[in-house]
Design goal:
Shape: globular
Number of helices: 5
Helix content: 25-40%
Number of strands: 7
Structural class: alpha+beta
Strand content: 25-35%
Radius of gyration: 17 Å
Strand order of the largest sheet: 1-2-3-4-5-7-6
Order of helices and strands: EHHEEEHEHEEH
Amino acid sequence: MRPIKDDYLVIRPSEIRDARELILLDNMIWTEDTSPGRLTWCSREDYLLHAPPGSQLVAVEDSELCGYVGFGHPTGMESNRHVLEINIAVHPRFQRLGIGLRLMETMKRMAAEKGIRKLRLRVLSCNQAALSFYTKCGFQEEGRLVDEFFLGGRYVDEVFMSFMLNPNKRIHPLDEWRGNQ
């Protein structure tokens, strides 16, 4: 596989037109080895309710969707608005070409600019490739739920990992957006 040059890869917010390819990628990536349960969408509309346009950054090369990083606040509570929970998927044909790293770096930069303090994610302990990737990206394990899932005839832990952005910043992101610095 040829390397993708920076000037050919575009990372942008997701749009309605991306829904079909994002659904196909989800069906391909989120298996018993990577997720506690298969992602199934009843319809395109169902998918868009779960992942509305702009809730992901997509990597596109020559109009082909290569991967995405999804993000959202883990709860609706004001006290948790400084945290984004993320998930990332890269099409198998585009893995190990640096696209995941580019998506993650773009996500970190965007979140930091918005005043987000912490990125968090969840990963299955059996997904060694993902654990290695997240560690390479600077994420650290915060905790785990032991034997949380029974998959493929074995018990699997759910691992919680995080990356701190703006660790010394004490202003709540909503105060910053409102101009109350």
